[in-house]
Write a structure and sequence with these properties.
alpha/beta; globular; eight-stranded mixed β-sheet; 171 residues
Length: 171
């Protein structure tokens, strides 16, 4: 059974990680997020759960404005062949989230370490990072270093990739 937002917050608390969560209407896209989130400081994420042609899974956690070319991304992250999005059932099974709620915090549900974490180097320039807490009706702000501690505690070492300058989003 997938872990819940309460499980996530308890996990972070056990690690001594402080966060702040703000409630808001459901957000499914980066555009919706920009218009409704208010004034939350820090980097805001775009999250893509992808699979390659061999079925290997990748969670890409990038700055919201990054242009990510799905046609060539596999070459940058070690995927075999072009990447495609994971379907909703598999997303729920692996990360415990519904479409529109993909988040770095979903790795809490990947106890079998089936997902390779790909982290945008640009996020590391922010002291604070904003992610959904396993649902798209809230945003949780966490310190960058604490987010890295969360990844380590879940057994997910990020592959850090520089996606280059921010710009028009392709994914």
């Amino acid at each position: 059974m997938s872990k819940t937002e309460d499980d996530l917050l308890q996990f972070l608390n056990r690690l001594g990680i402080d966060t702040r969560t703000v409630e808001h209407p459901p957000l499914h896209t980066v555009e919706e997020s920009r218009s409704l989130r208010g004034e939350l400081a820090g980097g805001h994420t775009k999250n893509l759960l992808l699979k390659d042609k061999k079925g290997r899974l990748f969670l890409v956690v990038a700055e919201e404005d990054r242009a990510i070319d799905l046609k060539t991304l596999h070459q940058r992250i070690g995927g075999q062949g072009r990447l495609s999005f994971v379907d909703a059932d598999r997303m729920r099974e692996i990360l415990g989230v519904a479409p529109g709620s993909v988040t770095a915090f979903g790795l809490l549900n990947d106890a079998e370490h089936r997902v390779t974490l790909v982290l945008d180097a640009g996020l590391l320039s922010h002291d604070m990072v904003n992610c959904h807490p396993l649902r798209n009706t809230a945003t949780t702000t966490i310190r960058r270093d604490d987010l890295l501690r969360f990844f380590q505690a879940t057994g997910h070492d990020p592959a850090v990739v520089d996606f280059g300058p921010t710009g028009a989003t392709q994914a």
